[in-house]
Amino acid sequence: MKGECPFLDFVSMLDINMFRENKDVIIADHNKRKLPHDNIIEVIRLDEEWRKARYDSDILRKERNEAARRIAAAKKDNDTQKVDEIMKEVATIGSKIEELVVLADNYLKERDSLRMKIPNILHESVPVGEDDQKNTLHSLHGNKVELNFSAKTHNQILDENSWVDLDRGAKITGSRFYFLKGDLARLELSLQIYSSNFLMNRGYTLIQPPLMMNKESYEGVTDLDDFETVMYEINPDGYYLIATSEHPLTAMRMGEIIEPSELPIKLVGISQCFRREVGAHGLSDKGIWRVHQFTKIEQVIICRPDESWEMHEDLLKNAIDLWDSLGLHYRVVNICTGDMGTVASKKYDLEAWLPGANEYKEVVSCSNCTDYQANRLKMRYRTSNGNAAVHTLNSTAIATSRALVAIMEQYQDGEGRIVIPEVLQPLMNNQKYLQPLK
After folding, report:
1. Where residue 239 falls among pLDDT bands split at 50, 70, 90?
2. The model's pTM
3. To 10 degrees, the CA torsion angle through 257, 262, 263, 266?
4. Which of 275, 226, 18 lies closest to 121 in space, CA to CA?
5. What distance in Å separates the CA atoms of residue 407 and residue 403, rounded to the nearest whole number?
6. CB of 375 within 8 A of CB of 282?
7. In whole angstroms, what is the distance from residue 81 CA to residue 107 CA?
8. To pair with 115 at 20 to 30 A between CA atoms, which of 12, 22, 165, 299?
């Protein structure tokens, strides 16, 4: 399932102290992922070179300061010969310090650039496997739809009811853009309202973030060089359209020291999301399943490290309870080592059953990123022992385009109608069925 869903991971980094004090832990994690150790060894070497260059420059600064005191004493004694001798001794110290500062900066840039390529440490419960076929079943939910007729795909349903205009979307923008129309547009709005209220009732604060981020803040949550085929850059302003509200919701506290009384911070973000989709995709990815613009309701938590694993299960429970309330059948899978991205320490996916496609497809991704993002964002909280990195977590609540696909395929009936999930009917003027456009 890697690369399947438009719910991007951040790219951040491990705390440098992990490399200095616990390199065996990183090496063991790489062994689990079947990754070589070259980057780990190089980060440690560059870190040692950086520290040596800084140490040497500090020694030279001390020598320069001591020389300044000796010069002052010699001048006080009117010993011009001594002043000249000392001046000759330290004549090149300034240039040597400058050289070492430049060298240290270069080592630091190389070290941290490489450090960003090293993945987070996996939780011990992550199953070991080479690809998504080794993901393990966590739980099954809802009743699998047993239709007594040939199931239609969501593409067929869209065509028959004229709820989406892909051709005109492509005409005015490009492929994988679309006009959403009629009752399906109303249902999409209902999903936004319903899922937002669902999470607000559980203590989450609703946030509508900016839809663009500047380069500095986006580099705090992702390595832009690695996402050239994913992100939309807005020139000449240098902004980037967000690929998920997870990015601005987490970056909004970058560079801050958070008071412990604020934690945990629980946010529900609602936004349009923009993602370039490149490469060939299957038939079931057509229609509105894999698109460049979509709406997503996202859960984000910022918390103390000792809370994060409990919070991860809470995020999953929120997603499960929300999708259960829609009356949809899906499964939860525990993502294995070979299917895990760079950032998450552990991740669950919810995969909805699509009877028209005859397969389960990802609709929710729920991740605990531990302190991996916070290290890059310099996002910390106060403790009695000094400031410490927070933990960050995120989970999709609803990506509306994919939820619409699951509803259309699972709620189709033998008369060609689409039943509206019961909990959404009050938001749809108590209609029972979506009305086609002709």
Report:
1. very high
2. 0.87
3. -110
4. 18
5. 6
6. no
7. 41
8. 299
Contact by Cβ (8 Å): 248, 273: no
Q: Tell me what pLDDT residue 284 has.
A: 59
Rounded-to-10 torsion of CA 364, 365, 367, 369: -130
Question: How many whole angstroms separate alpha carbon 153 and alpha carbon 76?
Answer: 93
Q: How many CA atoms lie within 13 A of 272 on its CB side?
A: 9
The pLDDT value recorded for residue 261 is 96
- Output 232 or 423, whichever has higher pLDDT: 423
C-beta neighbour count of 186 within 10 angstroms: 20
Q: Which residues of 41-61 are buried (b: 16+ CB within 10 A; e: fewer)?
A: eebbebbebbeebbebbeebe
Residue whose C-alpha is closest to residue 389's, from 374, 367, 404, 405: 374
Over range 320-341, report the average pLDDT.
96
